[in-house]
Amino acid sequence: MVGQRQAVTTILHHDVKTIKGIGQKASEQLEKLGIFTISDLIMTFPYRHDDFTLKDLAETPHNERVTVEGRVESEPSVQFFGNKRSRLEVRLLAGRHLVRAVFFNQHYLKDRMMPGNTVTVTGKWDRGRQTINVSNFSVGPKDEQSNFEPIYSLKGAMHQKTFRRFMRSALDSIGDEFEESLPAGLLEAYKLPKIKQALEMIHFPESPAQMKHARRRFVYEELLLFQMKMQAMKKVRKEAEKGMPINYDLDKVKKFIASLPFELTNAQKRVVNELCAELKSEVRMNRLLQGDVGSGKTVVAAIGLYAAITAGFQGAMMAPTEILAEQHATSLAEWLEPFNVSVAFLSGSTKGKARKQLLEMLEEGKIDLLIGTHALIQPDVIFKNLGFVITDEQHRFGVEQRRVLREKGIDPDVLFMTATPIPRTLAITAYGEMDVSVLDELPAGRKEIETHWLKEDALQPVLRKMAGELQKGRQAYVICPLIEESDKLDVQNAVDVYNQLSVYFQGRFKVGLMHGRLHPDEKEQIMREFSEGAIDVLVSTTVVEVGVNVPNATFMLIYDATRFGLSQLHQLRGRVGRGAEQSYCVLLADPKTEEGKERMHSMTETNDGFVLAEKDLELRGAGDFFGKKQSGLPEFKMADLVHDYRALDTARKDAEQLLASEEFWRAEEYGVLRGLLEQSGALSADRMD
């Protein structure tokens, strides 16, 4: 990205030891920060700037950081406490204000605080006590140095002052040798500073406006390069992986859609058109379909699969669990079999003669659509003519598993589906090399789930409400964040809650327990019993989060709801509200932070997963949105996906235009940008999985 810039001349690639003042010891400290060359050093950006502009205390709000210049008006007083702690205090006349300046654990400054001395202090202003708790201090009037000091993310023995000195020397040494990567047209269009000026302004700004101006340039450049890389990868992929046109029978597809027992939403119609256009093209489909819980992704999948089947191809659909795959098989068979489509189901449970017969029919082309679990990617599963592959809840499968399924056919079209709403800013970043379709509309007539946030001492009335639903023949989920009791976290756990509810409902309703430590077969069995109505109340950890469809479940209770992110809470809530009856979700929580309270309020205010996903991203940041183990999100030096979403969108559009123009591939002014793109490997077909 920005840090990977190439220069025509070599000084940028010189060892940092060539900078005056950097010896062996300092260079070893810099190496620990990933800094080896002059280029590495000057492309290490500050994460904030401290403002030392002199301010009038009358205009400074309470608890804000302030810098003032004043005359010492009293003898300094020092108090000592245990563990060598101390408190130094003097009276300071700053303008018209006589204030107390307090220094903690800096008693050694006493001799520099003589009455009549002029000093400059920086610290937090306590308006009520008329006190400044000092963090920075110097004797004499404020010097003429910049009012804005850069603060870098350092570690070890490296100090800010030393690092700033090295940075100043490095910038002075490079002259005009840092090549401009952004073409003049873009710099002009967005009024962005040139690279040398931007580096000066980001490291040593003379005003907040300069700092923001420089930041705009680096954010845009970073996002533009990233978007160009993503789109170039997509372009190379499409050119390298020519698909087979699927010339489906439009009349048959229209009749199939007309036969469905419901009207498609406008969102479903839009996505079906996107899929069908791509099926007919020579470009192999590589598309992500994301839709909120209950938005009708399965119906869209059914239409796409049927279209491929009318053209003489086979279809495959893989789901992460047996029960979810079985649910898909039931729905798809119900819709497709009246149209002479042969639907089969394959899982690890399919054994012996039945499995052998199914695989023979598949290889002979007598099965049009195969739905199943990981069993689909076994070597003996051979299709005659696989043309369309769908992976449901795609994040539950590894890249290798998805690749093996794709290779069961000759360049089949591929659709990935997910019920996890992903904010648009992340979708065009994390999935930049895919086309993305969104179902952002729920079917008509679907009742909104009533969501309530209650404190944990309100459990008894909640259980009475749950019992009322159970007496109507409904079912309930109870979700807990931990499996067993923990000394570290004071949160309800599934085993305890299961025992408590078993006693509470004894003789009235059957309570089941499910968690991640159970064997997959045990989980399948418990989920099957719940879906068939043999279990009334299912106590579970978050393993029920994905895909299970139990229309009779109308009540969900989530213990310690602050332990979950917004998107996860929404996914859990989506397990109820799947039938015609009114459903309820109760969040038990005593949040201690404003962010926790905001999350609970958000859940009660909307059922829209995309709104909640944006809120979750805003509250938790991009790094935590997918969880720490999720790969695919780049680490940006300067850009922030939450706050810079407008710049991301602008960069995406500019990247599209640049890559589509002949001028970009030929003109000299785009040479550096082309070089960066080539250097990233995005133009090489070898880089594709």
TrEMBL record:
<keyword id="KW-0238">DNA-binding</keyword>
<dbReference type="GO" id="GO:0016887">
    <property type="term" value="F:ATP hydrolysis activity"/>
</dbReference>
<dbReference type="InterPro" id="IPR014001">
    <property type="entry name" value="Helicase_ATP-bd"/>
</dbReference>
<dbReference type="GO" id="GO:0005524">
    <property type="term" value="F:ATP binding"/>
</dbReference>
<dbReference type="GO" id="GO:0043138">
    <property type="term" value="F:3'-5' DNA helicase activity"/>
</dbReference>
<protein>
    <recommendedName>
        <fullName>ATP-dependent DNA helicase RecG</fullName>
        <ecNumber>5.6.2.4</ecNumber>
    </recommendedName>
</protein>
<keyword id="KW-0234">DNA repair</keyword>
<keyword id="KW-0413">Isomerase</keyword>
<dbReference type="InterPro" id="IPR001650">
    <property type="entry name" value="Helicase_C-like"/>
</dbReference>
<comment type="similarity">
    <text>Belongs to the helicase family. RecG subfamily.</text>
</comment>
<dbReference type="GO" id="GO:0003677">
    <property type="term" value="F:DNA binding"/>
</dbReference>
<dbReference type="InterPro" id="IPR033454">
    <property type="entry name" value="RecG_wedge"/>
</dbReference>
<dbReference type="InterPro" id="IPR012340">
    <property type="entry name" value="NA-bd_OB-fold"/>
</dbReference>
<feature type="domain" description="Helicase ATP-binding">
    <location>
        <begin position="278"/>
        <end position="439"/>
    </location>
</feature>
<keyword id="KW-0227">DNA damage</keyword>
<dbReference type="InterPro" id="IPR027417">
    <property type="entry name" value="P-loop_NTPase"/>
</dbReference>
<dbReference type="Pfam" id="PF17191">
    <property type="entry name" value="RecG_wedge"/>
</dbReference>
<dbReference type="InterPro" id="IPR004609">
    <property type="entry name" value="ATP-dep_DNA_helicase_RecG"/>
</dbReference>
<keyword id="KW-0378">Hydrolase</keyword>
<dbReference type="InterPro" id="IPR011545">
    <property type="entry name" value="DEAD/DEAH_box_helicase_dom"/>
</dbReference>
<dbReference type="Pfam" id="PF00271">
    <property type="entry name" value="Helicase_C"/>
</dbReference>
<keyword id="KW-0547">Nucleotide-binding</keyword>
<dbReference type="GO" id="GO:0006281">
    <property type="term" value="P:DNA repair"/>
</dbReference>
<dbReference type="InterPro" id="IPR047112">
    <property type="entry name" value="RecG/Mfd"/>
</dbReference>
<keyword id="KW-0347">Helicase</keyword>
<comment type="function">
    <text>Plays a critical role in recombination and DNA repair. Helps process Holliday junction intermediates to mature products by catalyzing branch migration. Has replication fork regression activity, unwinds stalled or blocked replication forks to make a HJ that can be resolved. Has a DNA unwinding activity characteristic of a DNA helicase with 3'-5' polarity.</text>
</comment>
<dbReference type="Pfam" id="PF00270">
    <property type="entry name" value="DEAD"/>
</dbReference>
<dbReference type="Pfam" id="PF19833">
    <property type="entry name" value="RecG_dom3_C"/>
</dbReference>
<dbReference type="InterPro" id="IPR045562">
    <property type="entry name" value="RecG_dom3_C"/>
</dbReference>
<keyword id="KW-0067">ATP-binding</keyword>
<feature type="domain" description="Helicase C-terminal">
    <location>
        <begin position="458"/>
        <end position="623"/>
    </location>
</feature>
<keyword id="KW-0233">DNA recombination</keyword>
<dbReference type="GO" id="GO:0006310">
    <property type="term" value="P:DNA recombination"/>
</dbReference>
